[in-house]
Write a structure and sequence with these properties.
Chain lengths: 290, 217
């Protein structure tokens, strides 16, 4: 029991004895994890950005001149039922006159003596779909319900946004994998360097008859705590960073970055980091043991 | 207690030991002399199984180099105290922690350790310097600290490889006297040195090596 307590206390004392090495290790691990965290947050928010942009997609449907407000309500009801459509709002003939007056400062009925503006509808698309939105089939379906004179929409813009989203989503797993791999290598090498700087200690312990386990245990405990410190520090750092970015974003948009806290994910992250530091410490010490 | 039977060991650079036959009895205090490169350190390393002979057998405390398993080495080393020319104290620990280290390795109860450290430090005359780091001790003090670390576990064998190599004549003389005091407790001691003046006339067996061969005894 005394031996176990000694080895645990040695592991903790080593952190204090080698403050700079420990700090460097914690800092490197923290940076690696922070980048992984930022990436995860970016991934989590990419779809939210898309949802925000999709909420701005607008399709304007102009009905034929002889379509009355009452008939348009029925047609809009049909549009609402189309797949991919979230809302459809009627712009009655009278509303169109008012909008015209707001935009041009003239009352068109005064100029022409009658209201030439048709009933129209503003259609918003469903924004939550993880799939790519293809706007042309929706336009085709809107036109197919009949009594439609013209449909205006931002076709190229929508295409560009959707295409770029798909590109990002397709590449994200590779990017995340590469960054996680780099993080693992950084963590592993940091731990190895930390052990390397104390290879004399390993040699001395062996000379006085320490078993391999006796030599390894303090390093493993040290690695465990370094991993734990780094993992624990990451969440408040990410939270602070995102709060700061949101504060800046507040000047330009109402959209905010969300930091999702899923305890299971964070627990896994901690476990992975601790596992890497444990394996790293174990392997590094083993390589210096005769 | 220590036996070399037809032992040959060659380092990559060429020197080592050449068909050495030697035995050291339990409780003996022997000096090992010879010029630099004569094989003194190689012989010591073979005793604590840091090296294994190319041919022949080294027997230490009943363990034989040709039958030894890797996991038995720590066990043997627990019964051997070592003192080196270059001290090999841990620079990040104070004197107390350095000297206490072998006791932790042996699994001594924590409550017994301070008394044993005090005893060892008392024997080598370093009481009151427990909190000093090795860098805060003189060369002679560091060597005595190393000796305290070597004897604290009451080893069967104490190996001292050129322990006076970095010490002035007075400190060297004191260190040999200390070793003689430790020997009185029954410890088998082998001290390597190339300083013949330091060891002559002490009435102890002298093992002389030259070019890896036993030249005289």
């Amino acid at each position: 029991m005394d031996k176990i307590l000694y080895l645990i206390s040695e592991g903790l004392k080593n952190i204090w004895r080698h403050k700079m090495t420990a700090f460097t290790a914690v800092f490197s691990l923290f940076i690696a994890l922070f980048i992984v965290g930022l990436l995860a947050t970016a991934g989590d928010n990419t779809h939210k950005v898309l949802q925000y942009l999709r909420s701005k997609y607008k399709i304007e449907v102009f009905f034929k001149q002889d379509v009355t407000n009452e008939e348009a309500v029925g047609l809009i009801h049909k549009i609402k039922k189309l797949k991919g459509v979230r809302t459809a709002t009627i712009i009655e003939k009278e509303d169109a006159v008012r909008i015209f007056k707001d935009q041009f400062g003239e009352d068109i009925t005064d100029i022409l003596g009658y209201n030439p503006l048709p009933v129209s509808a503003v259609v918003n698309l469903s924004r939550t779909s993880r799939e790519l939105i293809k706007v042309e089939p929706i336009i085709k379906r809107i036109k197919s319900i009949g009594r439609v004179e013209e449909v205006r929409y931002q076709g190229n813009l929508i295409k560009k946004i959707e295409r770029n989203y798909k590109r990002a989503v397709d590449r994200f797993p590779y990017l995340a994998g590469a960054i996680v791999l780099i993080a693992i290598l950084i963590i592993y090498n940091t731990v190895k360097m930390s052990v390397y700087s104390r290879r004399e200690l390993i040699g001395s312990l062996q000379l006085i008859g320490a078993s391999r386990l006796f030599v390894k245990t303090p390093f493993i405990i040290e690695g465990l705590f370094i991993g734990l410190f780094s993992a624990v520090l990451v969440f408040p750092a990410l939270f602070g960073t995102i709060q700061g970015v949101n504060y800046l974003l507040n000047n330009f948009t109402t959209w905010r970055i969300a930091l999702s806290f899923n305890p299971v994910v964070w627990l896994w992250l901690c476990l992975i980091v601790i596992s890497i530091t444990l394996i790293g410490s174990y392997r590094a010490v083993s390589s210096f043991l005769k | 207690m220590i036996e070399f039977r037809n032992v040959t060991f060659t380092h990559k650079k060429g020197y080592g030991l050449n068909n050495l036959n030697l035995s050291i009895d339990e409780g003996e205090f022997s000096f090992l002399i010879g010029p630099t490169g004569s094989g003194k350190t190689t012989l010591m390393r073979l005793i604590y199984f840091d090296l294994f002979p190319d041919t022949g057998i080294v027997k230490v405390n009943g363990y034989s180099s040709n039958k030894l398993k890797q996991r038995q080495i720590p066990k043997i080393r627990k019964s051997i105290g070592m003192v080196f020319q270059n001290y090999v104290l841990l620079p990040d620990r104070n004197l107390f922690d350095n000297v206490a280290l072998p006791l932790h390795v042996l699994g001594f109860p924590g409550r017994d350790i301070p008394d044993r450290v005090d005893e060892a430090l008392d024997l080598v005359g370093l009481v009151g310097k427990e909190d000093h780091l090795p860098s805060e001790l003189s060369g002679g003090e560091q060597q005595r600290a190393c000796l305290a670390r070597g004897i604290i576990k009451e080893p069967d064998i104490l190996l001292a490889d050129e322990p006076t190599g970095n010490l002035d004549p007075i400190a060297s003389f004191e260190l040999v006297r200390l070793l003689e005091t430790i020997h009185e407790t029954g410890t088998t001691i082998l001290m390597a040195s190339h300083n013949y003046n330091l060891i002559k006339g002490r009435g102890r067996p002298i093992i002389e090596l030259k070019d890896g061969k036993l030249r005289g005894r």
